[in-house]
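Supplementary notes for students who missed Thursday's class. We covered one full example, reproduced here. Read the sequence, then the structure, then the short commentary at the end.
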Amino acid sequence: MKIFINRGRKKYENGPEYITINNKTVRRLPERPRDTGVEKEQEVFIIGSKGIPALYGGFETFVEKLTKHRINEKLRYHVARMADDRIRYEYNGVECFDVKVPHIGAARAIWYDVSALYSSIRWCRENPDVREPVFYVLACRIGPLMGWFKRKIKKLGGLLYLNPDGHEWQRAKWSKPVQYYWKLSERLMVKQADFVICDSERIKGYICKEYKSYAPRTVFIAYGAEAFPSHLSDREGKYVSWLKEKGLTAGEYYLAVSRFVPENNFEIMIREFMESDSKKDFVIITTRNNRFQRLLEKRLHYSGDKRIKFAGSVYDAELLKKIRENAYAYFHGHEVGGTNPSLLEALGSTDVNLLLDVEFNREVAGNSAFYWTKKKGNFAELIARVDAMSQAEMHEMGIQAKRRIREAYNWEDIVRKYETLFLKHDADDK
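Structure (token representation):
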């Protein structure tokens, strides 16, 4: 049997089998030499996401959308995936490759970035027809090694692009020595980068000011979201079953979707909701963190409030969108850096959004949301105001939120900006 791989490229005998990754069918690729005669293509290696097909996660969703909405056929993406195997496969017309990484706790992500970047550089060395490859590294985890990598990239005639993400070094879960490492790593990554791509104007301003001595070339390209409804109906079996399992009624619950970590301010949201007189439920869809949950129970005794409902994780994207759509309103307590994907998804799906009043959230939502502070009683008072809103008022807020997504955070515009940068190695916004 003969098949074609990557839209009309060279034919291969006894072609690759189809396999399933994260519930999606992909085409496994054989180990093979580089095709020739494609010198017009721009190779882009994306390192730092857990890979595609995306199951969850901000960087993973970004890579999924970037490749799915590709406009220019001259771009050829290579995406690393953290895995326990070592296979090559095709998905979204992209060559994906597994990087086998040992289970070594928090250091696993650092090992993965190092291995993925080294494998990408080696691939380019083995294929001498590659010209000016772009290595796009997501997050600042491997700064101490970046000087060595940059010399290798420079020998290839390549370029290093960086997305610094948010302020990882500010996260409360890290000890002081780890925070010091993240800050040092960020500085060294910015120093070596040919381009720093920021998905927040505030992060861009921070990079330019904090590392002024390096004169970093920076550009703002937003993260994206969608403003169209879920494919599921309100009567869809899996949504109805989810409501029944959690003891909920559509339109009668407040919602928060995020990692269960201190800097997302769950303690304030739970405490203030408990102080409110709301008759609705507060549903928390989050990752497991038993230690933090026990700590909050000790401080707040929230288990005695039947309105507080931890609903575990939801990895079905359409189901999660339907849950957001039918939430009475959305709570967002993030305060550490950057444009948050969960916030964008909420603005695209939920009519009324209640956000912690920090500069990053105001940059994203503007006047399309309500804001609360950490002052005692402030959030509870806002909940009471929202409880009293009319359907017309809530609908108008929803129109504003979705307009904000369509105008400033739509994937098509974002993909176009990325492709221009990858192909021209320049940007209007510096």
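Commentary. Residues 1-15 have pLDDT under 50 and may be disordered. The longest helix spans residues 108-126. If anything here is unclear, bring it to office hours.
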